[in-house]
Amino acid sequence: MTTTEAVPATRxxxxxxxxxxxxxVHSVYSDKDVFLRExxxxxxxxxxxxxxxxxxxxxxxxxxxxxxxxxxxxPEARQLIVxxxxxxxxxxxxxxxxxxxxxxxxxxxxxxxxxxxxxEGSQLIGQFGVxxxxxxxxxxxxxxxxxxxxxxxxxxxxxxxxxTYTIQTADIAEAPPRGTRVLLHLKEDAAxxxxxxxxxxxxxxxxxxxxxxxxxxxxxxxxxxxxADGAALWTKPKAEITSEEYTDFYRSAAGxxxxxxxxxxxxxxxxxxxxxxxxxxxxxxxxxxxxxxxGRMKLxxxxxxxxxxxxxxxxxxxxVRGLVDSSDLPLNVSREMIQESPVLAAIQKGVANRILSELxxxxxxxxxxxxxxxxxxxxxxxxxxxxxxxxxxxxxxxxRFRTTASGGDWRSLKDYVAGLKENQTAxxxxxxxxxxxxxSSPQLEGFRARGIEVLLLTDQVDSxxxxxxxxxxxxxxxxxxxxxxxxxxxxxxxxxxxPAASDAVDGFIAFVKATLGDAVSDVRASERxxxxxxxxxxxxxxxDRQLEKLLAGAGRLDAAAKPVLEINPRHALIAxxxxxxxxxxALREDAAHLLFDEARIADGExxxxxxxxxxxxxxxxxxxLG
Length: 626
Known about the structure:
Layout: E1 9-12, H1 15-25, H2 34-56, E2 69-74, E3 79-84, H3 91-99, H4 104-114, H5 118-124, E4 139-147, E5 154-159, E6 164-170, E7 179-186, H6 196-206, E8 214-217, E9 225-228, H7 243-254, E10 260-268, E11 274-281, E12 296-301, E13 304-307, E14 321-326, H8 342-365, H9 367-381, H10 383-387, H11 392-398, E15 402-403, H12 413-418, E16 427-431, H13 435-439, H14 445-449, E17 454-457, H15 462-465, E18 470-471, E19 474-478, H16 503-516, E20 522-525, E21 534-537, H17 545-553, E22 564-567, H18 572-579, H19 585-602, H20 610-624
Parallel strand pairs: 2-8, 12-14, 16-17, 16-19, 20-22
Antiparallel strand pairs: 1-6, 2-3, 3-7, 4-5, 4-7, 5-6, 8-9, 10-11, 11-14, 12-13, 15-17, 18-19, 21-22
């Protein structure tokens, strides 16, 4: 590749790209074939983008309207060329596309490998598509020359993957008429990628179903032969497609390296006609919790790629990969107007309903497979309980939970309701960041004593969707909110209710309330405590305590409600403090504050005043030691 006499501009990669390139250059990942899939996927995307832009500007296609990808081998020079006749890139676009990382999923990938050792990081390559940069697993240097469709200038980008790249205007005679040509100067141990049978085998194994024909030249002056026909897999009858072909297409189209946990392929007919090919990944994509929560479903119209920004699925189904090919949308529909199309609205509704229906069927027919999907994506699906009122009942039926009675297994709400106790009118839950801490929460003691099952909810979204929701006519109620009303639910056979609190205990509770003052909204005897001395709960009509913490941490709460301190009137410590009498006023005052701080600590918070807490604890220990 020759260039004009312009001096090439040398630029440094962004920090994230430099880290990624270091991993590629020093990769010990065994399946290096993935680089070819990544380059072909990029080339196919470029061809698809040209096909779309050519709808409104046919001049871009010129006399070469057939998209194609061509691979050329040069064993003597140890070079491999991957060329497409797609949309191409300008110099500025090349610098942006090949010098920075834009996908937040890629950033998440980099964050994960930042603390990993080289060997561990290399293994992560097998879980994530790293695009163009994967070429440096097999190449000492990569040159990319590109000419945007309709442009009369071209640019060449070059790098050895060691931290910098050069970019400059290219000799137009050496550039493709349009599109991009990527030249890989292969490493010595990658010479096998100049062998025709190796390339052909690799492409048929992992890129045989890209919707663009692929051609191969065994040497620079050879006649190209077609090795993949570019037939769209989703247009073929299901009976003619093997599971291996579905997996190949999924990996190529979705940029995933795992197997699909669920494959959905169907054609909708009736008022609107469209084909759907969708996959649920087997592992969590790195971009699962993107701030923008964008979906990854592509939209085609009669096999012409339109956009991957149509948001075909609701955001809580963003883990689904695949495409929809419509027969009804106009080919010249703009990306801006497409979201306003009633046809697309009908497609969106139909596809979302079908995917949820397939998940429901799977939960009944193969619970083990379904629970793996739920384990990976349940936290995302539960966003729909908060956002999608129309499908809330469907999503509640799909939901699975850890509970105080599940022994670590998943339980459905149907299972929960089947085990309701006599007079139980609510579905009880506890929210928090840690399952083990939740299971040992003092607020659960009274529920456990009566055999009442409690949902243990550890995802942040749980604090939001439970508000105002009911299932089978039963509202959800937090165990840390309001009165527990446990006296209505009978104890297990043979157990007697605890005696009422003595006058001395009632007096001590009143003393604690007066001592704590405005720090609490109330102090009262507890029905929910059986082992612990104290716990904190929210007022009857107050916000669940975990939700309050989340909103406060996000700056969305002006002032938190004062908690209620519940005291176990049957606890030995409370009985002794109650009997201590007024002669021990200083002790009782310190104890009142320490009990409150103990409840805060059990709730995952700091003492209200750490220095005062330390002083009181010191005085109490000194009294105990005489």
